[in-house]
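Fold these two proteins, one after the other.
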Amino acid sequence: MIPTPAQPTRHYGIGAVNYHTGETVVLLKRHKRRREIAELLQALVDKHPAGTIYVAWDNANTHEDDEVEVVVRAAAGRLVLLYLPTYSPWLNPIEMLWRHFRREVTHCELFPTVKALLAAAREFFDRYNQAPYRVLSIIGSHAQIVT
């Protein structure tokens, strides 16, 4: 009998980027279901307790559910969901950041453990949140950072 590796342990990055400030909110989760999408929206509402939050996203089936609707309703009109056309990742700024993440962190890399991969992912987003002007450059925003 030939030994084979176990089922892969998957983790997903679920995130959002502020097009004006370059700040990111990224959750690293074992699943990418409706519950995790609702957690991301709640994290955005918690991070921005005042004002309107606009979320541009695709039409994935995980974006439409009662759990997501509960968060949207609880935000009392402060959370506005903008649905992008199907198959148009170039319109979603976070997709450009994911591409940069893959190029810098995971491309041609073999991590000894999933824990090491997750640590590298967290370090990437922590580092870029310290330098939001770099994120703005990656996503093509021409917003000015006010210091």
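Now the second one:
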Amino acid sequence: MQSNITQNVVLASPRSEDERGVVATACVRKLGIKIPAVLDEFGNTTEQAYTAWPDRIYLIDRGGRIVYKSKPGPFGFNAGQLAAAIATITKPIPSDQRTQLEPAPSATP
């Protein structure tokens, strides 16, 4: 991609998981990525499970549900939609809607 050449992010395709880690680290650093990045294993099982090629961004809530899935990238990402999804899942829960935890049973000898 021309933007990779412009930003000097031109790397050979990795031939092992170790090389893949080196390439991913270089991309995160050179592109100034500030969010956590996760590296798929060399067999790409996560990519296959989530149809993550080309690039996709997923936001997964605390319950493990996908709350945002971008369109295929790199141009399918919409920052406004992701921000709205983040805002939705980070809203404080009103006290009347919180689950009340029952106290743990006391231990008896």
